[in-house]
Automatic annotation (TrEMBL):
NADP(+) binds at T10, G11, A12, V13, R38, S39, S158, G159, N308. CDD domains: ASADH_C_bac_euk_like, VcASADH2_like_N. It catalyses: L-aspartate 4-semialdehyde + phosphate + NADP(+) = 4-phospho-L-aspartate + NADPH + H(+). InterPro entries: Asp_semialdehyde_DH (IPR012080), Asp_semialdehyde_DH_beta (IPR005986), NAD(P)-bd_dom_sf (IPR036291), Semialdehyde_DH_NAD-bd (IPR000534), Semialdhyde_DH_dimer_dom (IPR012280). Its EC number is 1.2.1.11. Substrate binds at Q155, R228. It comes from the Bacteria. Phosphate binds at R99. GO terms for molecular function: aspartate-semialdehyde dehydrogenase activity. Residues 3-117 form the Semialdehyde dehydrogenase NAD-binding domain. This is Aspartate-semialdehyde dehydrogenase. Pathway: Amino-acid biosynthesis; L-threonine biosynthesis; L-threonine from L-aspartate: step 2/5; Amino-acid biosynthesis; L-lysine biosynthesis via DAP pathway; (S)-tetrahydrodipicolinate from L-aspartate: step 2/4; Amino-acid biosynthesis; L-methionine biosynthesis via de novo pathway; L-homoserine from L-aspartate: step 2/3. It comes from Exiguobacterium mexicanum. Catalyzes the NADPH-dependent formation of L-aspartate-semialdehyde (L-ASA) by the reductive dephosphorylation of L-aspartyl-4-phosphate.
């Protein structure tokens, strides 16, 4: 049994982490919840027991924590995660603070759990869109090798947290947005995170760099366009992938059908393909609309959908924790 901390327990991902820990029957001795001062003292009911939220402060270093799941933003992670890790706590961080650090594992359990080791106690949880994409790409990379990947993501407003959801709801009431620069209701925004000098957004650059790191393919050609869409939850990603070795459409489908964490929904004749509603509330990655790109040799199109708050954040973090304690992953 383990003493498990959730840092950022009142946020959307933090709340989902608590939910997933319960669903997965993670072996918890004591659950410790941390948040800002304004939330301290409130209680959260977990499995019929009220757990008091603690104020996040340096006092956390004295608490008997075995595993800490962080989802409180990069600055909080940078402040607290390294020292906890040095004390021997297994820290799994959902921010972007450590993802591209060469000595810190960036883990999606279905893809690269072999990179986990007992001596590396600070582990980064990847970007939500990257997680679902590499779950679909990794089995193809293993069998055929990859030459190039092009992403176009269609990302739900929950990816911006509660403030994104509230902007969608404001728009439905005819009100102006407070989070996004333009209305998201009845609209799409080709802009997620800040723009960089190269014209890409930070979100797009994350997908590019994280894909290369997770797949251990530093020279892989990757590009991305990330779009915010008026959907409450679950991201979709259109993936165009060029393989190193020849493959038929049937072979690609067969590989994906057997891939861990993938649910194949691909029968266009019967209008079977995944949508955000299919993925919502689940921890699988749904793949469909698989077809040959007739304009490029050995290139295929995939449509990939997953719940960005669960598999794209909370569940992936808990699955990493399961791997670290030697527990069979629930998903």
């Amino acid at each position: 049994m383990y003493n498990v901390a959730v840092v950022g327990a009142t946020g959307a991902v933090g709340q989902k982490m608590i939910e997933v820990l319960t669903e997965y029957e993670f072996p918890i001795n004591e659950l410790m919840l941390y948040a800002s001062a304004r939330s301290a003292g409130k209680t959260v009911n977990v499995n019929g027991k009220d757990v008091v939220i603690r104020e996040l402060s340096d006092a956390i270093y004295a608490d008997p924590i075995d595993i800490a799941l962080f989802s409180a933003g990069g600055s909080i992670s940078e402040q607290y995660a390294p020292r906890l890790s040095e004390q021997g706590v297994i820290v799994i961080d959902n921010s972007s603070a450590f993802r591209m650090k060469t000595d810190i594992p960036l883990i999606v359990p279905e893809v690269n759990r072999v990179e986990l080791s007992p001596d590396k106690t600070l582990i980064a949880n990847p970007n939500c869109s990257t997680i679902q994409s590499v779950v679909a790409l990794a089995p193809l990379a293993e069998v055929y090798g990859l030459t190039r990947v092009a992403y176009t993501s269609y990302q739900a407003v929950s990816g911006s947290g509660q403030k994104g959801i509230e902007d969608l709801e404001r728009g439905a009431r005819g009100e102006e947005p407070k989070n996004y620069p333009y209305p998201i209701y009845d609209n799409v925004l080709p802009h997620i995170d800040v723009f960089l000098e190269n014209g890409y957004t930070k979100e797009e650059q994350k997908m590019i760099e994280e894909t290369r790191k997770i797949l251990n393919a530093p020279n892989l050609g990757v590009t991305a366009t990330c779009v915010r869409v008026p959907v409450r939850n679950s991201h979709a990603v259109s993936i165009t992938v060029t393989l190193d070795r020849d493959a038929t459409l049937a072979e690609v489908k067969a590989v994906l059908a057997d891939a861990p964490g993938v649910v194949l929904m691909d029968n266009p004749g019967e209008l079977v393909y995944p949508t955000p509603l299919d993925a919502n509330g689940t921890d699988d990655v749904y793949v469909g609309r698989i077809r040959v790109d007739e304009s490029q040799p050995n290139t295929f199109h995939l449509w990939c959908v997953a719940d960005n708050v669960r598999k794209g954040a909370a569940a992936n973090a808990v699955q990493i924790a399961q791997c670290m304690i030697g527990q069979t992953a629930t998903k």
